[in-house]
């Protein structure tokens, strides 16, 4: 953890122990004390670690919870509308996601498991059918698709619906790219060096992908308005070129 000075610079790191081979991290207030906490996906020991924050930049020792096999990507949201944050993590070793519902006191229920495509390497969350219930989208590398699981608002999810992407989708993010108040999907595709955009219809379904060229081996994507025109833009990092590509929307 590197605490910010507020001028773009940061203090030296403070290190906290996690599980084995941590691969992904997310933050949220898991015990409703207005202090941010940390969750880490531990690829090597099939757990997530939760580190509760003290509000002064330091954190308690980890508490671990079991996931599926080889957890790769983690996100947090309120999946059962109880104002308590929950955890979703992708498991590339058994092609599932694990959902752990939060109790609001920093602890979590045992996982519930849902099937995905092969090698689900990335997860993002949004309301894709405008029912005020959060849904999940997964990038499945070995299937060349994304998997959408619509949420029922009680912490459970429908079976996945698959949409084709490029070859080797590595990372997924969501945003409204055409200003129709419906969430869309963006995916990086490692094997054929393209980015896929799937526009949402607002009912949980998505159009066929539109593709844009990237540099070599795009590995991650993020969304934001980089030129202050109220339209979302996209940035992609390209692993084998040591570069970042910006696409203005």
Primary descriptors:
mainly beta, Lipocalin, Neuraminidase, 19 strands
Written description of the protein model:
This is VCBS repeat-containing protein. It comes from Rotaria sordida. This protein has 249 residues and is an all-beta fold. It folds into 2 domains: 1-115, Lipocalin, CATH 2.40.128; 119-248, 6 Propeller (Neuraminidase), CATH 2.120.10. It has no helices and 19 strands. It has strands at 22-28, 37-42, 47-51, 63-66, 71-77, 86-91, 96-100, 112-115, 120-126, 135-140, 145-149, 161-164, 169-175, 184-189, 194-198, 210-213, 218-224, 233-238, 243-247. The protein has a 4-stranded antiparallel beta sheet, with no helix packed on it. Strands 5-6-7-8 form a 4-stranded antiparallel beta sheet, with no helix packed on it. The protein is globular, with a radius of gyration of 18 Å. The two termini are 33 Å apart.
Strand content: 35-45%
Distance between the termini: 33 Å
The low-confidence runs, each spanning 5 or more residues with pLDDT under 50, are none
The biggest beta sheet is recorded as: 4 strands, antiparallel
Helix residue percentage: under 10%
Radius of gyration in whole Å, from Cα? 18 Å
CATH topology name of the largest domain, in short, is Neuraminidase
Write the layout of secondary structure elements.
Blueprint: E1 22-28, E2 37-42, E3 47-51, E4 63-66, E5 71-77, E6 86-91, E7 96-100, E8 112-115, E9 120-126, E10 135-140, E11 145-149, E12 161-164, E13 169-175, E14 184-189, E15 194-198, E16 210-213, E17 218-224, E18 233-238, E19 243-247
Antiparallel strand pairs: 1-2, 2-3, 3-4, 5-6, 6-7, 7-8, 9-10, 10-11, 11-12, 13-14, 14-15, 15-16, 17-18, 18-19
């Amino acid at each position: 953890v590197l605490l910010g000075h507020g001028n773009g610079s940061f203090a030296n790191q403070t290190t906290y122990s996690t599980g084995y081979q941590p691969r992904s991290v997310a933050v949220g207030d898991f015990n409703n004390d207005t202090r941010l906490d940390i969750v880490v996906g531990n690829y090597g020991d099939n757990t997530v670690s939760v580190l509760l924050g003290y509000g002064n930049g330091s954190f308690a020792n980890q508490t671990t919870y079991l996931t599926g096999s080889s957890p790769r990507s983690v996100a947090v949201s309120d999946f059962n509308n109880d104002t308590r944050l929950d955890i979703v993590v992708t498991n590339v070793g058994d092609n599932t996601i694990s959902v752990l519902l939060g109790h609001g006191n920093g602890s979590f229920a045992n996982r519930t498991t849902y099937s995905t495509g092969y090698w689900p390497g990335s997860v993002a969350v949004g309301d894709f059918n405008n029912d005020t219930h959060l849904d999940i989208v997964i990038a499945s590398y070995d299937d060349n698709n994304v998997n959408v699981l619509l949420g029922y608002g009680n912490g459970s999810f429908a079976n996945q619906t698959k949409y084709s992407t490029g070859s080797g989708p590595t990372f997924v993010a969501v945003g409204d790219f055409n200003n129709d108040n419906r969430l869309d999907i963006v995916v990086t595709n490692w094997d054929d060096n393209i980015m896929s955009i799937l526009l949402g219809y607002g009912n949980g379904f998505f159009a066929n992908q539109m593709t844009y060229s990237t540099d070599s081996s795009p590995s991650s994507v993020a969304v934001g308005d980089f030129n202050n025109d109220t339209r979302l833009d996209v940035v992609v990092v390209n692993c084998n070129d040591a570069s970042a590509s910006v696409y203005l929307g």
